[in-house]
Amino acid sequence: MDGGTLYSIGDLARRTGLTVKAVRFYSDLGLVPPADRSPAGYRLYDLDAVARAELVRTLRELGLDLPTIRRVVDREASLPEVAAAHAEALTVQIRTLRLRRAVLTAVARRGSSPEETDLMHKLATLSENERRRLIGDFLDAAFGGLDAHPGFAGVMHSITPELTDDPAAEQVEAWVELAELAQDADFRAGVRRMAEHYAAERAQGDVKSLRRDSAAMVRERAAPALTAGIDPASPEADPVVAAVTAHYAREFGQPDDAALRRRLLARLESANDPRWERYLQLLAVINGWPAPESLAPALGWFIDALRVRTPG
């Protein structure tokens, strides 16, 4: 066929896969204008109309609205720019749908109440900036004014949750619980105490994070005693306490006396908050990390052993 060929509305519909009703609708809107009229007054379309109709059909199938399509076919907006903007919008919609699916799955699994479902939905559908602001407020409450030392940067990074764009139901559940925990004033105060202990110890010398050192010492020394069923108040626990406190004293170049033991006891008691361990467990789920080892039993045993040997 040559360029002068004209098509009836039915022919155009067959060539483009549209219905006659759709062609008429787009034609009335001016998106696919007729090139001419037959003697009987019927609309006739040329090859340009065929191309426009096919483009309109494609863009509609991709989800673009009619005003945007008009701008494209009238060359008021470039197709690549429109496609990029629409793709970005779809990305947001897809992420929202995935979150909704995860929330609904979590609600079904937990048997949540309407109130819990509402809270879960609100926390799960926060924007990335809103999530960062929530966690930023928590980190500021815990570390604000103490984070000048480079060591804190690594600590803060290591406890920052990063919810993926396509979270599993368990990640949504973990994020909701962690977000609630991070907003709890009493929990924030507890983490602040841990941070202040850490900062005070850093100020005394260039030592490693004592939270990790004390945990390592307790795990190494106290865990076997706990497994063996040794009573923390019994004489059999004396060597365990002595080994840990001696190591702690060497770190600071100070005598292993009552004052040092009281400081270690306060450090370990603040670190043994079960809510902090829960936070780390939730963090691992959200970030897709291996589950952290629970130090609570060994820490608890050692704290009891140290307490009975530390004068008030």
Task: Explain the overall architecture.
This protein has helices at residues 9-16, 20-29, 47-61, 66-73, 79-110, 114-124, 128-143, 150-158, 169-182, 185-203, 210-227, 238-252, 258-271, 274-287, 296-307; strands spanning 7-8, 36-37, 43-45. The protein has three domains: 7-77, Multidrug-efflux Transporter Regulator, Chain: A, Domain 2; 80-123; 126-307, no CATH class. Strands 1-3-2 form a three-stranded antiparallel sheet. The protein is rod-shaped, with a radius of gyration of 33 Å. Residues 206-211 have low confidence and may be disordered. With 312 residues, the protein is mostly helical. Strand 2 (36-37) and strand 3 (43-45) form a beta hairpin.
Helix run count? 15
> Largest sheet at a glance?
3 strands, antiparallel
Query: Which strands sit side by side, in order, in the main sheet?
Result: 1-3-2
Q: Name the shape in a single word.
A: rod-shaped
Based on the structure, what is the oligomeric state of the protein chains? single chain
Give the topology.
Elements: E1 7-8, H1 9-16, H2 20-29, E2 36-37, E3 43-45, H3 47-61, H4 66-73, H5 79-110, H6 114-124, H7 128-143, H8 150-158, H9 169-182, H10 185-203, H11 210-227, H12 238-252, H13 258-271, H14 274-287, H15 296-307
Antiparallel strand pairs: 1-3, 2-3
Helix pairs in contact: 1-2, 5-6, 5-9, 6-9, 7-10, 9-14, 10-13, 11-12, 11-15, 13-15
